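Comment thread on ticket #2218

A.B. wrote:
> Attaching the input chain for the structure job we discussed in standup.
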Amino acid sequence: MQDGGAESIYDAHHHLWDLEAVHYPWLAARGVKRFFGDPTPIQKNYLPEDLLDDIGELPIRKSVHIQVGAADDQHLAEAEWVQKMADTSPLPSAMVAFCALESAERSHRLDQLEKFPALRGVRQIVGRAPEEDRHSGSAQLLDNPAWLRGLHELQGRGLRFDLQLIPELMQKSFSVFRQVDELPVALCHAGSPWYREREGWALWRKGLCDLASLPRTVCKISGLGMFDHDWTVETLRPVVETVIDTFGPERCMLGSNFPVDKLYTDYQRLWQAYLELIAQYSAHEQAALKRECCANFYVI
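C.D. wrote:
> Ran it. Output below, let me know if you need it in another format.
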């Protein structure tokens, strides 16, 4: 797939899955509603050709696959499958895999992952939603010295970290990530802007400002349909403008979060909304948002 020049767009955050190749417990569960809604409509394969069908005529030239909750014993299998897709399909261009950074097996698992040419980094979700986090315990990673050592190892290996959390965890995350300030970090889904009331909005904005003060941290404008199921361009506008004002256009990228966000929109409508929302910025700033931040961060 050709780069496409000045109009090309890079999708910085999407997922693919083959339910026969890899088991995803969260996706396979029946009758279980998740924080983003009912996953029943997406409980089927989503392959590169499905993504390309959704893209249609949009000039999406490169993309990044993000790990998506494979079973505990299948994280390597997921990465291996994604590498095969990258080798044989126009998209994805790169991947972010899973590694339990607090594990005693961390170094061995990272060695295995680094054999895949498409690997760019690791995502280990810190926070999903207040109710789910109370049961998962994933937020406890922020207090785990072994996890911090894992972040240092990522930094030493020249890898990146995709950070997914909720606003309540931003302050503590800032205190952790300032200790690895040379680690490139991508804040996923704009930091999960759950709240629109004054106190929640202020908490989210304060967290954004803290994380934006880390010079190697960028922000993905992605997954907003998970927090605003009936979104319109105008309901997304305050989120998008706040993120860009806080990080600057050069440190923001755009992602579809498909097929999860396919629960609430189609690919064309989502990207047309993004393009409308960034039309107020200069050509240079739009280029950063559409592709250059993603290209620089993920080296694609």
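A.B. wrote:
> Thanks. Noting for the ticket: DSSP finds eleven helices and eight strands in the chain.
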